[in-house]
Amino acid sequence: MAKLETVIKEAIARGARRQVRVGITPLRREVVRLRKKMTELQATVATLRRNAVGWKRLMEAAPAIPQVSEEDAKAARLSPRLIESLRRRLGLSQTALARLVGVSSTAVAHWVAGDSMPTGQNRMTLVALRRVGKREVKELFARRVTEAASRKRRTRQRPARRPRKRLKR
Fold first, then answer.
1. Is residue 135 a contact partner of residue 90, using CB atoms and an 8 Å limit?
2. pTM of the model
3. Which helix (H) or strand (E) holds 16?
4. What SS3 class is residue 81?
5. Which residue range forms the structural domain that includes residue 10?
6. Is 77 left (phi over 0), alpha (psi -120 to 50) or beta?
7. First vs last Cα of the chain: how many Å apart?
8. Interatomic CA distance for residues 50 and 52, integer angstroms
9. Which residues of the chain have pLDDT under 70?
10. Which of 26, 120, 125, 131 has a 20 to 30 A CA-CA distance from 89?
11. Residue 57: what pLDDT?
């Protein structure tokens, strides 16, 4: 009787295994397909993140001052009085305007006095500043301050040198 019992148990176990295999095989295939899809999606997300970082850097590096063509800069009138009124409208000191344009404060003083006139890139920047308001100028200065602070953090100071011990003779 024990032999018949084990034969029946083995037949039931075999049938059960077959039924489980029939149910599990499509699920295994689906799991493999989903894993491949997951790997593809992870690669896509990684690429998108890299692109997002690149775009973020590009947007942060993009000047708040609109770009002006050379023809527009040459055609624009720039008199000492216009430079002074631009500076006052934006609420900038001569030093702040000089930092914004990228020149010395003495150069701005000469422009306002009429001793010299801005040329090239400086002229283009001044013409572009006409299209900017106080809020944008504040944002530009805030960005420059954070850039300067991050540059300072990046530079490391060397550790102080220890004095050498002299050998006794």
1. no
2. 0.51
3. helix 2-61
4. helix
5. 1-62
6. beta
7. 104
8. 5
9. 1, 60-64, 145-165, 168-169
10. 120
11. 78
Residue 119 DSSP class? -
Q: Which residue has the tokens 């055609």?
A: 75
Residue-level pLDDT at 39: 96
140/99 Cα distance (integer angstroms): 11
In terms of residues, how long is the chain?
Answer: 169
CB 124, CB 70: distance < 8 Å: yes
Same domain, 75 and 146: yes
C-alpha 5/C-alpha 14 separation (Å) is: 14
* Distances, alpha carbon 105 to alpha carbons 9, 47, 99, 109, 110, in Å: 97, 45, 8, 6, 9
Domain shared by 74 and 146, yes or no: yes
Instruction: Give CB contacts under 8 A, 24+ apart, made by 13-22.
Output: none
* 106 and 82 inside one domain: yes
Distance CA 92, CA 108 (A): 12
Residue for token pair 């000492």: 80
**Boundary of a domain, candidates 62, 80, 96:** 62
Please give the pLDDT value at position 44: 96
Residue owning tokens 């993009």? 62
What's the CA gap between 94 and 113, in Å, rounded? 12
- In this structure, is the dihedral angle defined by the CA atoms of residues 103, 106, 112 and 113, taken in order, positive or negative? negative
